[in-house]
Automatic annotation (TrEMBL):
Similarity-based family: Belongs to the isocitrate and isopropylmalate dehydrogenases family.
This protein's name: Isopropylmalate dehydrogenase-like domain-containing protein
A GO term for molecular function: NAD binding
Residue ranges annotated for the Isopropylmalate dehydrogenase-like domain, each copy included: 6-334
Metal-binding in keyword set: yes
Origin: domain of life: Archaea
Entries under SMART domains matching the protein: Iso_dh
Length: 341
């Protein structure tokens, strides 16, 4: 009997619908070629729902997510005015305690990267830090944001990162700014050092965030697993994505103890909405991570191989990779490869 999964699909805003449809097309190809049944449950979330629901994450969508095994999420536009709804992605991460944001960055075949041998994963704490959402004006011209760092959340993400390092090259780098943020990064660093005691086979070192920004350009191939707090992780994972070729290739998993949400690292790129020109690979690699999370290793390997082959052949390439193919041509090529494997 076919193994069945319920998968929530939140298309998001801007280029979100195009890239999530591309990823669903690849999942349908997986379904057609394996003994898997995927029930897609479509939900509303993002900027476009605010006029109708008064929020970017309606309760009906939260209820839908609770019924599913995992979620594919397109990027969503986040309004920047004070008082506007906070990011739907941040809300989902907190609501489901998806404490580890896992963002692999590696050199791909036939893609211009700073080096051809980059293979690192940024593991970003995903529920607190500068994203705690506690920010206010103290007096005219003076405002404060709370960078909340707890031992509990830091330990959870550190443990996740060590377990990942154990499955990889057994090297973990923790990134911080404890020379300035002594109290908050003190808590984070202590949690990492405590977790290190449970994983003596992993080599550990640490780098300040400003130095890390430089090292990612200078010697990115020397890193394996990088673990850090929320904002630092957001910034360096975008940097690492560009160092390996394009933000259009970088996928992210948001992992908790009982749920996972999978999305591209990039945002909703509103200026490209509906143009069928952006690279869908980041979202396709996000669903590859979802299949791996669901324990469907063969399906995950098939998607990865299909992406690698399409990139290696170089016949179908979106504009960010120096080609002229459309979003749908790229996803058709990857879906066809999945069927051929
Ligand atoms: P962005 O990632 O949307 O776009 C920055 C640039 O990256 C684009 O102009 C484009 O040149 C390139 N790019 C992004 N995706 C690409 C793709 N698939 N293929 C090729 N090139 C691609 O970042 P932004 O402009 O800072 O943010 C736009 C909106 O997205 C904002 O409202 C922001 O809050 C939101 N955002 C959402 C998420 C999320 O939902 N998780 C993440 C980041 C940003």
């Amino acid at each position: 009997m076919a193994k069945t999964y319920s998968v929530a699909v939140l298309k998001g805003d801007g280029i979100g619908p195009e890239v999530t449809e591309a990823a669903v097309k690849v999942l349908e190809a997986i379904q057609d070629t394996s003994n898997l049944k995927l029930n897609f449950l479509y939900g509303e979330a993002g900027y476009h729902c605010i006029p109708e629901y008064g929020t970017n994450l309606p309760e009906v969508t939260v209820a839908l997510l609770k019924k599913t095994d995992a979620c594919v999420k397109g990027p969503m536009t986040t309004p920047e005015e004070p008082g506007a709804p906070v990011s739907a992605a941040v809300k989902i991460r907190k609501k489901f305690n998806l404490y580890a944001n896992v963002r692999p960055c590696r050199s791909y075949p036939n893609v211009d990267a700073l080096r051809s041998d980059i293979d690192l994963v940024v593991v970003r704490e995903n529920t607190e830090g500068m994203y705690s959402g506690v920010e206010y004006k103290v007096s005219p011209g003076v405002s404060v944001a709370m960078r909340i760092i707890t031992q509990k959340a830091s330990s959870l993400v550190a443990e996740y990162a060590f377990k990942l390092a154990e499955k990889r090259r057994k090297h973990l780098t923790y990134v911080h700014k404890a020379n300035i943020l002594r109290v908050t990064d003190g808590v984070f660093n202590d949690a990492v050092k405590a977790a290190a005691k449970n994983h003596p086979d992993v080599t550990v070192d640490d780098v300040h965030i400003d130095a890390m920004a430089m090292h990612l350009v200078k010697k990115p191939e020397t890193y394996d697993v990088i673990v850090t707090t929320n904002l630092f992780g957001d910034v360096i994972s975008d940097e690492a994505a560009q160092v390996t070729g394009s933000l259009g290739l970088a996928a992210g998993a948001n992992i908790g103890d009982s749920y996972g949400m999978f999305e591209p690292v990039h945002g909703s790129a509103p200026k490209y909405t509906g143009m069928n020109r952006v690279n869908p690979t980041a979202t396709i690699m996000a669903v590859q991570m979802m299949m791996d999370y669901l324990g469907e290793k063969e399906a995950a390997a098939k998607i990865e191989n299909a992406v690698m082959q399409v990139l290696k052949e170089g016949k179908v390439r979106t504009k960010d990779l120096g080609g002229s193919s459309t979003t749908s041509e790229m996803s058709d090529a990857i879906a066809s490869k999945v069927k051929a494997l």
